[in-house]
Specification:
261 residues, single chain, alpha/beta
Length: 261
């Protein structure tokens, strides 16, 4: 299933999908079926305008992030903190012997603050490789190095390193910790990813207080104004949010969650 999900996303990734549509149009053009060829070219043009010229991705991302706002009033006591992996580049960390973050580094930097505040809480960092390659370094490997360098006692932290996706983050972490029903847990992940994470937790009957980080949008209403200077940025944002929406839908139909949004 992990391999299948990776292959499906290769096809559904917005830029790849645009190339596929153009290629199909080109094939029909070679076969001199002009009507179908022009139809595919038109679809590609419309797709490019909607995704690249207008801030469609930012609008969708803003809606995802608004469901779980930042937690400003902290609870007095927390029994445990689950930190979802994915914020690092294990390969670059290993090559340069320096902790290398990607765009979701706040999952770890905010975790340091919370670990120091809730010094008696159980801590789990859950993050395998998320890669199709075998025997690669994991996000847990980088997290352990990061926490050590930040002066955190890593003996307090359980590092789960077998998971390859969000569902396995929860599945393997729950088996390791066996949380009690009356415990109060914090969940740290990116704000746009929090909906899927909370849906999985609800399905597994593991209650969390969401602590979203890594916000990509503000609280202002997104204006649908076309821009020819932000095409690449718009595509990147749409790529991010469409990946998350595909994940929300697929997890629901796979029975891993009880709802999509």
């Amino acid at each position: 299933m992990f391999l299948l999900s990776k292959l499906i996303w290769i096809v559904l990734s917005p830029l790849n999908l645009l190339i596929i549509i153009l290629f199909i149009g080109f094939l029909f053009q070679l076969m001199k079926i002009q009507l179908i060829s022009r139809t595919f070219y038109l679809i590609a043009l419309l797709f490019f305008i909607v995704v690249g010229i207008f801030p469609t991705g930012k609008f969708l991302l803003s809606n995802l992030e608004s469901k779980y706002p930042a937690l400003n009033i902290m609870p007095n006591k927390i029994d445990g903190i689950l930190i979802l992996g994915g914020p690092t580049n294990p390969s670059l960390t290993h090559i340069h012997n320096q902790v290398s973050f990607n765009d979701a580094g706040e999952r770890l930097t905010e975790a340091v603050k919370l670990i120091k505040i809730y010094h008696s809480s159980k801590i789990i960092f859950s993050g395998g490789s998320g890669s199709l390659e075998q025997n690669v370094l994991t996000h847990s490997y980088v997290a352990k190095k990061f926490f050590l360098e930040m002066g955190i006692d890593i003996n307090r932290i359980i590092f789960e390193s077998k998971s390859n996706n969000t569902f396995e983050n929860f599945l393997f972490s729950k088996k390791l910790i066996n949380p009690k029903s009356n415990e109060k847990w914090l969940l740290i992940t990116s704000s746009f990813h929090m909906t899927r994470a909370m849906n999985i937790a609800e399905k597994m009957e593991w209650e969390f207080i969401p602590y979203p980080v890594d916000f990509r949008t503000g609280n202002k209403k997104i204006k649908f104004i076309p821009s020819f200077t932000k095409i690449l940025q718009n595509f990147n944002t749409f790529n991010l949010v469409s990946h998350e929406i595909v994940g929300l839908i697929s997890y629901y139909f796979l029975g891993r969650t009880s709802k999509i949004f």
